[in-house]
Amino acid sequence: MPAIAPITPTAPSAPTVLTARALLLDMDGTLVNSDAVVERIWRRWAERHGLDGDEVMKVVHGRQGHASMAVLLPERPVEQNLADNARMLAEETADMEGVVEVPGAAAFLASLRGVPHALVTSADVALSTARMAAAGLPLPEVRITAESVGASKPDPEGFLKGAAELGIDPGECVVFEDSGAGIAAGRAAGMRVVGVGPRAGAHGPDVVVRDLTQVRVEVVGDGSVRLHVG
Hints:
The protein is an alpha/beta fold. It contains eight helices and eleven strands. The chain has helices spanning 35-48, 53-60, 65-72, 78-93, 105-110, 125-134, 157-166, 180-188, and strands at 16-20, 22-25, 32-33, 100-101, 117-120, 142-144, 173-177, 192-196, 207-209, 215-219, 225-229. Strands 6-5-2-7-8-9 form a six-stranded parallel β-sheet, with helices on one face. Strands 1-11-10 form a three-stranded antiparallel β-sheet, with no helix packed on it. Helix 6 links the parallel strand 5 (117-120) and strand 6. It is globular.
């Protein structure tokens, strides 16, 4: 009988390494898992408006509420969407059941001490403060919230403002995002994007991780960071 060749174990693929001078971090789905409350509130909204809940959930992640409503109910006046959005934000801020950190988020944020970084979220100040606290996560010093911008993701305004606040060129920033709208915003801002979680892979980020346990931050002597991703 011919000799049987030994089976050579397949080596794990090497992580992707990205170099940056600043990181711009989405909140929901990226640092904080708030899917349970988002599902509850948006499915109730869908039912009130006679819309299919599954189809609504395909739209709402990453956008400000009124921007999602404009997509889902295009004939409805802007003022009505804004008023409805304000009610929903209050409802979300009062409901923290099931809000937890994305695995690895606390350690990841701790590794960013001394590294320029900002939170760039479609939530407002009250909601972002409440959700980060519920997940046991510290708020970054620089925060771009719904009040900070005139246009919701997928418009790049929030990420460009974050880069400007940090004094870093957009091309030297890396975005962490979970949603199609957020990934598109990061791309439009001229930034590289790390996709986080199960939603991200379908939207063309530079690299995708299951969660933040798959990211290691290495601070380099020249003030930049190397992100070991994967």
